[in-house]
Amino acid sequence: MKGAGMPEVSATELFRRGFNFTPTRVARAPGRLEVLGNHTDYNEGLVMSVAVDRYIEIAASPRTDGRIELVSSVFPQRELFAVTDIRRNPEAPWADYVKGVLLELRRKGVHFSGFSAAIDSSIPLGAGMSSSAALEVATALVVRELYPYALNEQGAADVPPTRDRQGRLPVLGVKERLPLARLCQAAENRFVGVNCGLLDQISSLFGKAHHVLSIDCRFQTVAHAPLVGEAIVVCNTGVKHALVGGEYNALREHCESAARALQAKSLRSVEMSYLKANKHRLSPREYECAYHVVGEIQRVVYAERALREDDHRQFGQYLFQSHESSRDFLRNSCPELDLLVDLARQHRACLGSRLTGGGFGGATISLVAYHEVEAFIAHMSSAYEQRTGRQLEPVVCQVVDGAG
After folding, report:
1. Structural domain includes residue 154
2. Residues 6 or more apart from 246 whose CB is under 8 A from it?
């Protein structure tokens, strides 16, 4: 999303304006939408997601003074720091995602020097599309473009990738994508302070056009299932959520303490019947969170079956059920999200709708028959403004390939 009043520019043009010369390398990574599986990833559960056609793009060039300088199309302040002195700056918290990745690359044995970079985003902030993970992935990829490296499970490989005659690096292999996703997750956990799971980074790297990603977060495996026939419409409430503020981490703590009380490795190991029989072991809040997560994992299993059987209407019903569970048990919804889901349910073309992402504001995702998308958007926009006084600008997202 561009800053207020800022013209639409590419990362390359932003770089030219910011540094007065042309960048040598460009990398980009898509945002993602969580289709089903709310807060199941860090519970070693199952989740369905898609990579979408909203991107973080970074244009960059190396520099010789050992410094890194960042400019952004969203945030007005520049950030300048030494490669040897990467630390937080309260005046530029958005740069923490970049800095966290740089520190994790260093921990893995990746060698890099200074560079200048311009960061452009078409991902709406706070809309549940994970601009943070896209920024992390794009950062790792633009460093790879500037200072080629290859990752494996142990760290940086001894032999870096080589460029072809056109100066292009080989695309990331499957075996490199997962270590890179873990590295970006570690950056958000350790440096930014959000104890997130692996969903966002995997989605940005493993996305496949016109397909849903089915992610098993315990075994860290990825499968793809076709999703054709419906459009994905995102409706942003306009309510800002800041996961660093603590709500997200608090939910994770409730889930993990529930698993410990149930003597389970994670809530992935807990059956609903066992959970109900052992409700007395848990605090009321632990039980609510566990009830949502265990049920949500079951919904993903059923939804995968519905897709295999080409029963998209039933698939959509699981989205509605997911939202109700998030609202009533996980309690990470808000009145505006609930209103959007209720309005979507009223339209005949909507198969399913739910909050997407961390919650506490943000956006809903709705599956809508292609031929009635315009009517659905008009319905949602007018009804939301009438009820809240706020303008709504629904966005139709295309499902795209992942980064790398």
Report:
1. yes
2. none
pTM: 0.89
Question: How does the average pLDDT of the chain come out, rounded?
Answer: 93
Rounded to whole angstroms, how far apart are CA atoms 73 and 379? 32
What average pLDDT does range 96-109 have in this prediction? 97
Residues 44/393, Cβ–Cβ less than 8 Å:
no
CATH number for the domain spanning 202: value is 3.30.230.10
Q: DSSP assignment, residue 328?
A: I
Query: Where are any strands of DSSP class E within 322-371?
Result: 350-356, 363-369
pLDDT at 244 (0 to 100): 44
3-state helix, strand, coil in the chain (%, to 5): 45, 20, 35
Quote the domain boundaries for residue 206. 11-36+51-216
Position 393 in a domain: no
Amino acid 12 reads T
200 catalytically annotated: yes
Mean pLDDT of 15-29: 97
Quick check: is 235 in a domain?
no
Q: How many independent structural domains does the chain possess?
A: 1
- Residues near 39 by Cβ (< 8 Å), separated by ≥ 6? 251, 252, 255, 289, 292, 293, 296, 326, 330, 332, 358, 359
Strands (E) located in 131-237? 151-152, 155-156, 211-216, 221-226, 230-236
Token couple for 336: 């505006």
Classify residue 29: in a domain, yes or no. Answer: yes
Q: Using only C-alpha atoms, what is the Rg of the chain?
A: 21
| 357 close to 34: Cβ distance less than 8 angstroms | yes
Please write the tens of the pLDDT for every residue from 334-365: 999 999 999 999 999 999 999 998 888 889 99
Residues β-bridged to residue 353: 366
- Reported confidence tier of residue 93, pLDDT bands at 50, 70, 90: very high
The two beta strands, 25-36 and 46-62, are antiparallel
pLDDT tens sequence across 106-164: 999 999 999 999 999 999 877 778 899 999 999 999 999 999 999 998 999 999 999 99
Least confident stretch, 46-50, 236-240, 353-357: 236-240
Catalytic residue (one of 200, 216, 342, 401): 200
